[in-house]
């Protein structure tokens, strides 16, 4: 009994001493440590409320990566079936079913079928091609649940680069363009195509399709010319200045006639990207975004020589761009574009390899969380 009492007294003494030491230590000031109150945040939206996406097909090796990094939206074309037209309901249903099976939401079609040289160059068969495009819009909305179509106005020669393996940071490979390398190439089989002709053909197209897009709620999203030079091999380019986009938007004013904010191209036109996002965003004209960075090497506008870069280098203030998307309340689809090929990868798809894409998504997500949390502070 005495031993039990003696042990109890000892334990009590030890406890008292420990509490005394702890209390004393807590009152000591450490000049290297400042005590801050927890940062209380209001609820903030994942990815600043935007739909982060990858450009891929349902059978792409990117799909497992997309799931693992929680990028659950896709920019995709139509799964081709030799027995079906890509605008047929069955072809669109099959594509949607493939995405549904993966648990990924299909949100944008980029590079639509039935919009080619016939329409852009006013060739024989133009009206049939436009009719098929309208059918595609209707079926895509009804059977695919997709309400954004990203298209371009670059016939014959679309996206173009003169170098696919320019050494970038740390030896990564990037794409680049130098107009001097192609300016003396012969004209195409279509000869010289003037800017006036390109404008006339674009107006014809918009007047035919925008009223139909309004009826079904399809957002038409015009991508800028890439590269944004004035002509390539005799074919003029007209979607290569901010002013020309303003002109396009006035041809058929509609909430369903908008644009793809491809940051790289608009920056190479000389635009202040955050300011432009705010201007067109507040007007409701940005339907889709390509989050991308570049560096002009020409010193002229529009740029005639430039290189792609990692997303965290280049001439665009990417944090300010992300802040601008947040400020306009952009809730649409946004994807990284034109990434470097990194160590260990074969440069089989310049601009679209996996490691650079994953790096870009991580960078985008960090920017988005930074912006969203900064605006959610109590």
Concise summary:
The protein has 378 residues and is an alpha/beta fold. 39% of the residues lie in helices and 16% in strands.
Low-confidence parts lasting 5 or more residues at pLDDT below 50? 1-33
Number of structural units classed as domains: 1
Separation, N- and C-terminal Cα atoms: 59 Å
Structural class: alpha/beta
The largest beta-sheet arranges its strands as 1-2-3-4-7-10-11-14
Q: Helices and strands, in N-to-C order?
A: HEHEHEHHEEEHEEEHEHHEEEHEH
Outline: globular
Helix share, percent: 25-40%
Radius of gyration: 27 Å
| CATH class bucket | Alpha Beta
What would you say the CATH architecture is?
A: Alpha-Beta Barrel
pLDDT averaged residue by residue: 92
Number of strands: 14
Major beta sheet, specifics?
8 strands, parallel, barrel
The CATH topology is TIM Barrel
Secondary structure topology:
Layout (H helix, E strand, L loop, with lengths): L1 H26 L23 E5 L6 H7 L4 E3 L13 H14 L2 E6 L6 H4 L5 H19 L3 E4 L11 E5 L5 E6 L16 H22 L2 E4 L8 E2 L2 E2 L5 H10 L5 E6 H6 L4 H10 L3 E6 L2 E3 L8 E4 L9 H10 L5 E4 L17 H21 L4
Helix pairs in contact: 3-5, 5-6, 9-10, 10-11
Describe the structure.
With 378 residues, the chain is of the alpha/beta class. It has a single domain, classed as Divalent-metal-dependent TIM barrel enzymes (TIM Barrel, Alpha-Beta Barrel), CATH 3.20.20. The protein is built from 11 helices and 14 strands. It has helices at 2-27, 62-68, 89-102, 117-120, 126-144, 195-216, 242-251, 263-268, 273-282, 318-327, 354-374, and strands at residues 51-55, 73-75, 105-110, 148-151, 163-167, 173-178, 219-222, 231-232, 235-236, 257-262, 286-291, 294-296, 305-308, 333-336. An 8-stranded parallel β-barrel has the order 1-2-3-4-7-10-11-14, surrounded by 4 helices. A 4-stranded antiparallel sheet has the order 5-6-13-12. It has a two-stranded antiparallel ribbon with strand order 8-9. It is globular, with a radius of gyration of 27 Å. 41% of the residues are buried. Mean pLDDT is 92; it is low at 1-33. One of its GO terms (molecular function) is mannonate dehydratase activity. Pathway: Carbohydrate metabolism; pentose and glucuronate interconversion. It catalyses: D-mannonate = 2-dehydro-3-deoxy-D-gluconate + H2O. This is mannonate dehydratase.
